[in-house]
Specification:
Number of strands: 0
Number of helices: 5
Largest sheet: none
Oligomer: single chain
Helix content: over 70%
Order of helices and strands: HHHHH
Strand content: under 5%
Structural class: mainly alpha
Radius of gyration: 16 Å
Length: 122
């Protein structure tokens, strides 16, 4: 159980860091050269975070949530969509409209993540 709690603490911290970086990215004005650097950071952190969720959290979710398999499949589909968008963003120049459109994505509160944490800590 301690391992589960440590894992959840780390994933929660990673989750918050990704949200902070998204906020930082959205707070930079169009044309700011730092946008590319922050977008690359967001991409790297998000990919690492989602891989950790997929490897460690989702197996627990499948086993411990009543609708775990369906929830995990929805989350995996969301991950693929965001990663595809971020993959398009990486080679894009920061001073163009395509970059601005791609940066317009906003993460939503991850209800699944909160529900799973509550279920796993019971």
């Amino acid at each position: 159980m301690q391992h589960d709690e440590d894992l959840l603490d780390q994933l929660t911290a990673d989750h918050r860091a990704v949200l902070v970086h998204f906020g930082e990215l959205s707070g930079l004005p169009g044309g700011d050269p730092r946008r590319k650097e922050v977008a690359d950071l967001v991409t790297d952190r998000l990919v690492r975070h989602t891989r950790a969720e997929e490897q460690h959290l989702y197996p627990l979710a499948r086993d411990r949530l009543a609708d775990g398999p369906a929830v995990v499949e929805r989350e995996l589909a969301d991950h693929r969509g965001v990663e595809a968008l971020l993959g398009e963003l990486r080679p894009t120049r920061a001073d163009g409209p395509r970059f601005d459109r791609s940066c317009a994505i906003r993460p939503t509160p991850d209800r699944f993540f909160a529900e799973l944490l509550a279920a796993l800590l019971r």
